[in-house]
């Protein structure tokens, strides 16, 4: 395992996690709580990014496989992400009209899209940094860095959120956004500038129109690989529920428990600390026990904990349960990434991870749609509608669990 590359690879995950958690915690509430944007339309931001991914990542994955490089795609998508999130932050800091709120939301959508686009090629670097028997551990290190970065991100902007520090514009939640983007730029630069792939560029002449026509054929070839089709479908379903619960977590806390932003931040730190441990521990256990067994155990735990969270009305017990849940968050994505890398031959990794990213982000449609419909239709029920939405998410995880049971044993 190349320790230098693992460090640069993990540092990039650390960098990305900072604006992700800050926007997730403060931008979501700025839209829904402060400006009255409905939960439905907030969740449709993630659907919009999924549509962009649907039309771009498969062809980008094919192009990357043709030229046998991943780094340039990460570099340019990171530039777009930083630029878009920076625009969203600045507009939000001065927003006084509904049109300004809309423009900021659109910029945020583009930033999310660029981030998820970069993950296609970031994940595909896993075999470049570690041999097969160490990929679960390396993936866990990356996930640990992600959760640790989120903890740092929360603490880094506390003074801005409280109003103690003000850059410019309106004091409050929006002051946290721009500092998080700047921190991402600082910590993402080492990978963007100094990471060198083992592979050698193989320039080839390709025709994009022909490649688009061949996407369906390539996808059919991909899902013929034993277990890949089932795994992508299962990942699509259970990840749908996990991302939706995460994206709506600050709003859930506000609407159900009416807690302060400081309490939300501290609770999230507790979740992230256990998630960081879960990321490293989950990858290590998967290497020892087996990827499939580990993933099935994790999904079984999710099936149990979602109904518990939905039924809990005491904030103390809820906090205890979600902090324990953090172990599952960290372990889930560390193991999922390693499973995908293990199922697919190395020469098809870019293309495979383009669909992995699509499954990850396009899955933010079914559950967000379900969530949005429930909290809208049952608006008269108050906080109970959010608990019902949480309970419904369990269905997606159960179906995903049943499908994972049918994939071949991954060694």
Identify the quaternary structure here.
single chain
Mean pLDDT level: 84
CATH secondary-structure class: Mainly Alpha
Q: What is the CATH architecture assignment? A: Up-down Bundle
> For the CA atoms, what is the radius of gyration?
20 Å
- Give the SSE string: HHHHHHHHHHHHHHHHH
What does this protein structure show overall?
The structure is a single chain. By secondary structure, the chain is mostly helical. The chain has a single domain, classed as MFS general substrate transporter like domains (Growth Hormone, Chain: A), CATH 1.20.1250.20. The protein has helices spanning 3-34, 39-67, 71-94, 98-123, 126-129, 135-156, 158-162, 177-194, 208-224, 228-247, 249-257, 261-289, 291-311, 315-343, 349-362, 366-377, 384-404. Helix 13 (291-311) packs antiparallel against helix 17 (384-404). The longest helix has 32 residues, at 3-34. The model has no long low-confidence stretch (mean pLDDT 84).
Summarize the SSE layout with pairings.
Blueprint: H1 3-34, H2 39-67, H3 71-94, H4 98-123, H5 126-129, H6 135-156, H7 158-162, H8 177-194, H9 208-224, H10 228-247, H11 249-257, H12 261-289, H13 291-311, H14 315-343, H15 349-362, H16 366-377, H17 384-404
In short:
The protein is mainly alpha-helical and 411 residues long. 81% of the residues lie in helices and 0% in strands.
Characteristics:
411 residues; mainly alpha; Growth Hormone, Chain: A
């Amino acid at each position: 395992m190349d320790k230098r590359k693992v460090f640069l690879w993990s540092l990039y995950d650390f960098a990305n996690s900072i604006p992700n958690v800050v926007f997730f915690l403060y931008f979501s509430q700025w839209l829904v709580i402060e400006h009255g944007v409905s939960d439905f339309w907030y969740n449709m931001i993630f659907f919009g990014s999924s549509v962009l991914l649907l039309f771009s990542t498969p062809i980008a994955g094919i192009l990357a496989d043709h030229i046998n490089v991943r780094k340039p795609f990460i570099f340019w998508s990171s530039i777009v992400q930083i630029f878009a999130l920076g625009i969203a932050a600045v507009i939000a800091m001065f927003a006084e009209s509904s049109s300004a709120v809309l423009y900021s939301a659109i910029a945020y959508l583009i930033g999310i899209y660029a981030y998820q686009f970069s993950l296609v090629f970031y994940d595909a670097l896993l075999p470049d940094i570690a041999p097969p028997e160490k990929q679960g551990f390396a993936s866990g290190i990356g996930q640990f860095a992600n959760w640790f970065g989120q903890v740092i991100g929360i603490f880094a902007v506390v003074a801005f959120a409280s109003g103690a520090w003000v850059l410019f514009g309106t004091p409050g939640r929006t002051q946290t956004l721009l500092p998080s983007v700047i921190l991402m730029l600082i910590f993402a630069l080492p990978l963007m500038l100094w990471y060198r792939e083992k592979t050698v560029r193989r320039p080839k002449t390709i025709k994009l129109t022909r490649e688009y026509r061949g996407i369906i054929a390539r996808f059919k070839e991909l899902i013929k690989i034993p277990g890949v089709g089932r795994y992508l479908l299962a990942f699509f379903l259970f990840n749908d529920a996990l991302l939706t619960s995460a994206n709506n977590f600050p709003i859930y806390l506000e609407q159900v428990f009416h807690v302060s932003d400081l309490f939300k931040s501290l609770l999230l730190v507790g979740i992230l600390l256990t998630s960081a441990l879960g990321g490293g521990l989950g990858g290590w256990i998967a290497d020892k026990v087996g990827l499939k067994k580990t993933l099935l155990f994790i999904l079984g735990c999710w099936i149990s904990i979602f109904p518990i969270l939905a039924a809990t009305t005491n904030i103390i017990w809820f906090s205890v349960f979600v902090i324990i849940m953090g172990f599952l968050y960290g372990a889930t994505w560390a193991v999922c990434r390693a499973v995908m890398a293990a199922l697919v031959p190395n020469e098809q990794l870019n293309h495979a991870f383009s669909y992995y990213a699509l499954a990850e982000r396009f899955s933010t449609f079914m559950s967000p749609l379900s969530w949005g419909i429930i909290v809208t239709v049952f608006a008269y029920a108050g906080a109970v509608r959010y608990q019902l939405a949480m309970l419904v998410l369990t269905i997606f995880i159960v179906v995903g669990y049943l499908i994972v049971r049918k994939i071949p044993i991954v060694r």
